[in-house]
Amino acid sequence: MSIDTEAFRRRMNDELQRIAETLAQAKCASSIVELDQSAVGRVSRIDALQQQAMAQSMLERLHTRERQIDAALTRIDNGRFGLCCACESDLEPDRLNADPATVCCKDCAEKRVPH
To answer: Over 90: is that where the pLDDT of 40 sits?
Structure first.
């Protein structure tokens, strides 16, 4: 299978840039919640804590995605991009186009999911 790795590299670098921008914005939202309890009601405090938890969860997802993309870029550098990590067969083009950071072919991915 012939893969345009440079096109995938550009696409993933673009995504990494968007992730970095989103991380910079999201770090403020996930910081420690400090509220003046005499001026803010209990519901407002709970709402602020929930928003903080959602922001922290988003940060975790963004960092996970960042690691996945970094690993895919490393596979490009090592000449392993587009190969299944389990059976080493070529990844399906549709699967790779949907997510360039994917690591397993459809068959191996289905084997990994408990039924």
So the answer is: no
